[in-house]
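Propose amino acids for all 380 sites.
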């Protein structure tokens, strides 16, 4: 045989033999048991407590009372108060403006003279009537003379009443030449100058009171139940039903808060927004601060409603479909739990039933969950 043809077969046979030998003598690998590592989840320990149901709203501060400054008599302006400027401050019964009173003084003097004349005539007619009644009883005067005396007395009495009314009117007109402030307040705007002739009924400015201010707050109709009042309540609220209100505004890095109360509900539901409007009343200056709440300020409001007991506050993301939450049991396994939702808020939810104090609720956003899944809870 040709040696060159035999050598390849020998090499191949030798390689196959070595492969079989290695395969038959390979070391055995130990079999390790597989243990699945539990998923770490964040949990919170449930603790129930009392909560005040609140309604958040917003609005613009408006004056409680706002009046147009309108003179009741005509004349030339002879004096104006330094407070009668836009933004000016005044006190109750303070004189804001004076009108030339010369004509009204003359009218008063005339009416007083007319009153005095009417009083004299009335006194004379009364004495004359008494005298004729006495003579008539003695048959010393005729019935026609007595009737004439009675008519004269009634005319004199009517003149006296008219003169008294004219005098009272003249006194009121004279007093009205001074425009006095009906309350403590501020001037929103004024439209009068010294020396200007103003007419009766002319609008010369706007003033508003500063003892209280009001904020008109929109609320969803179904939220009225959180305030502890029926939906049909409208108008001025009784004092015992008025919920407290806190309004806040930011001035740079400072946040200011004022306290007040909801005093009334408007009669209608807005057709476009389906909102009910409540009106909160606040003091312009709180006792513990000197900062006045300015009219026209946009504020955030929180209306504190009725209190509820034994409710649990959880992040809103913990509630899954069909009002279920994930509870970690004693064996660190996830369990679905049906709960009763009292109220959904922006980022939180109030649970009224279904959870016990001390239970662990999963707050991690798990995508795939199997009931009974083993987890590693991390309490926050």
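Proposal:
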């Amino acid at each position: 045989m040709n040696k060159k043809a035999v050598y390849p077969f020998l090499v191949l046979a030798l390689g196959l033999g070595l492969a079989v030998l290695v395969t038959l003598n390979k070391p055995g690998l130990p079999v390790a048991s597989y243990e699945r590592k539990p998923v770490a989840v964040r949990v919170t320990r449930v603790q129930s407590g009392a909560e005040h149901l609140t309604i958040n709203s917003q609005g613009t501060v408006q004056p409680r009372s706002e009046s147009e400054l309108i003179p009741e008599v005509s004349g030339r302006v002879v004096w104006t108060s330094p407070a009668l400027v836009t933004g000016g401050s005044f006190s109750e019964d303070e004189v804001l403006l004076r009108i030339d009173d010369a004509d009204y003084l003359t009218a008063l003097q005339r009416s007083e003279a007319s009153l005095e004349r009417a009083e004299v005539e009335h006194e004379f007619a009364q004495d004359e009537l008494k005298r004729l009644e006495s003579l008539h009883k003695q048959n010393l005067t005729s019935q026609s003379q007595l009737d004439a005396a009675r008519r004269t007395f009634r005319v004199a009495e009517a003149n006296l009443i008219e003169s008294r009314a004219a005098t009272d009117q003249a006194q009121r007109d004279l007093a009205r030449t001074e425009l006095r402030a009906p309350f403590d307040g501020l001037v929103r705007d004024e439209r009068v100058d010294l020396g200007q002739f103003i007419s009766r009924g002319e609008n010369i400015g706007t003033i508003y009171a500063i003892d209280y201010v009001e904020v008109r707050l929109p609320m969803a109709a179904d939220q009225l139940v959180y305030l502890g009042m029926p939906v049909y309540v409208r108008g001025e609220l009784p004092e015992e039903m008025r919920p407290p209100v806190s309004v806040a505004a930011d001035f740079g890095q400072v946040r200011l808060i004022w306290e007040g109360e909801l005093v009334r509900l408007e009669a209608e539901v807005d057709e476009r927004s389906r909102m009910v409007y409540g009106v909160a009343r606040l003091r312009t200056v709180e006792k513990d601060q000197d900062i006045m709440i300015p009219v026209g300020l946009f504020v955030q409001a929180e209306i504190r409603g009725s209190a509820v007991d034994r409710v649990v506050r959880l992040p809103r993301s913990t509630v899954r479909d069909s009002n279920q939450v994930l509870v970690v049991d004693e064996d660190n396994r996830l369990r679905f739990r049906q709960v009763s939702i009292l109220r959904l808020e922006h980022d939180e939810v109030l649970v009224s039933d279904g959870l016990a104090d001390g239970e662990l609720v999963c707050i991690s956003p798990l995508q795939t969950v199997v009931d009974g899944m083993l987890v590693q809870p991390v309490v926050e």
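The helical segments are 3-24, 102-137, 143-175. The chain has four domains: 42-51+309-379, 54-64+210-308, 73-100+177-209, 101-175.
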